[in-house]
Amino acid sequence: MHDDTSLPQPDGSADEAATEPSPGQGGSGVSRRAMMRNAGIAGVGLGLAGLTGGTAHANPAAATTPAQAAAAAEAPPRKGRTMIGVPFEKRSTVRVGIVGLGNRGGSMIDLFLALPQVKVVALCDPVKEKAAAAAKKVTDAGQPAPATYTKGPDDYENLCQRSDLDFVYVATPWESHFEMAKAAMLNGKHVGVECPIALELGQLWELVDLSERTRKHCMQLENCCYGKNEMRVLRMAHAGLFGELLHGAGAYNHDLRGLMFDPDYYEGPWRRLWHTRLLGDLYPNHGFGPVGNYMDVNRGDRVTHISSFGTPALGLAEYRKEHMPPGDPSWKETYIESDRTISLVQTEKGRVIRLEHDVSTPHPYSRINSLGGTRGVFEDYPERIYLEPTHTDDQWHDFGEYAEWDHWLWKEHSNPPGGHGGMDYIMLFRLMQCMQLGLVPDFDVYDAVTWTAPVPLSHASIKAKGAPQAIPDFTRGLWKKARPGVDSEKPEG
Question: I need a labelling partner for 135 at 20 to 30 A (CA). Which of 189, 248, 291, 344 fits?
Fold first, then answer.
């Protein structure tokens, strides 16, 4: 196990905004979060035992049989009221605080500033130069100078305590997401977090319980759910063009070797260090979120089990041998994360979702993004489709012929600004619109934790030689009722 006491302070990116191809604080002393960062993270790699003081602490790594896995996934008693269908409080202006101003946060601030009636009130990052650069963007946009919190890794707690914030956006290294989401909700703020939202099963349950108790939304800001292709397929699926849905696939297959060994891209080696701790799918959300939406997961169906398999971990060590000089700190690291993880997820209705993760070997970028049913199939990268009765020749056809099914958000914003082909802007526009109009958000804490559950559960399954791991019903039975999601209706007015 690699000693992780050199983990960087919160900063950096939860997503590679600058490189992904477009798809067609005044704290002092030792805080609880600091102790978790320096001591508890090692526990994640050793056994994924629950480290929090929260609700569920069953160790999924010990669940080696279906019966044990089911017991580990049993829902604890509800401590509040469900957040399903709960609208935001209506407000004319949304006041935002941003925690983490590295690659991701430093680019997303531009989109917050481009949105109507959104004010960036406060910024937090222990790297003062990054906070100053972001603050200048705010004033250059004609807004008042934001408050800045740069006094160490826990100064985000002071940002969250402000009385003039409605929403906290978190874009920091993964190990800090859970504590920051908690701090925002405990201080009465809605929170949106880059993926993954947490790293342990107990943490996921604690976020559900805290959202229900505080009545504040805790959301995984999964931008791929708002991709143009994803939203078109979503509407087509809901209109029945694919017939009865049978299978789907999603992935994060993105060669990050160069970036993970780049001393300047990330604020320290935090992302690479996760490859010394876990075996499974470190980043399932980009693939899982869209396919889950197609199948109405948590809205009429639910995912029940996951079985995962992983290849040997060879890619990063081989890249290091070829590119890193002797004496580089990376030579002290031992990589265990599977170069490619393949997971099969079963739903209550019997559907199958395939998830893949590979950031350690050379290959073109792909999220797979596939959906199949009794009337045909769509596959992305490159985009192509085959649907009966229109297609009868057993040949792929042009997905562009289905542009009429584009979501109203893409029809209204045909050329959105920002990275990832515009999906980041579409996501933030819709979220801020829901807050301003007092609407129910397109996704909620139950989606956030479901899309993230493969992180600890795939690790447990691989350790158990592919044995299925039960995925908790985080809705506690409320998944059975159909309800709206990302396939939203355009608001009136």
Answer: 189
